[in-house]
Write a structure and sequence with these properties.
By secondary structure, the protein is an alpha+beta fold. It has one domain: GIY-YIG endonuclease. The chain has 5 helices and 3 strands.
Length: 123
């Protein structure tokens, strides 16, 4: 007890913690949609029901939720969403498949002008 104020149980702090989800949907046309939300169930229902005719997923239903990761820090979630959005389809698929080896391989720059590829093969 601090100055007559009763401490709250730890469980309530965890319960009060805001969570943010980065998620990916596979659309009927086989494209991927990546998004962020603080209520995954509600957002999934909005996508599934097609509540916004202007939304990317509206005309691409039915949808499948293929990936979701939870964060407590909104800035980390936003950064992760932006990173995934910049990835190739193959990298997204490797993430969905939980194939870390393939994801690592796809992340290596193979461009001949990249510094890590300079002087290879010239002996």
């Amino acid at each position: 007890m601090l100055s007559g104020v009763e401490a709250r149980p730890t469980v309530l702090y965890i319960h009060d913690m805001k969570t943010y989800w980065v998620y990916m949907l596979r659309c009927a046309d086989q494209s991927y949609y990546t998004g962020i939300t603080n209520d995954l169930e509600l957002r999934w229902e909005q996508h599934r029901q097609g509540t916004d005719p202007k939304a990317y997923t509206y005309s691409r239903r039915p949808l499948e939720l293929v990936f979701a990761e939870v964060f407590n820090d909104p800035q980390q979630a936003i950064a992760w969403e932006k990173k995934i959005k910049g990835w190739t389809r193959a990298k997204k698929q490797a993430l969905i498949d939980k194939n870390g080896d393939k994801l690592k391989d796809l992340s290596v720059c193979k461009n001949q002008t990249h510094s890590s590829n300079q002087n290879k093969g010239s002996s």
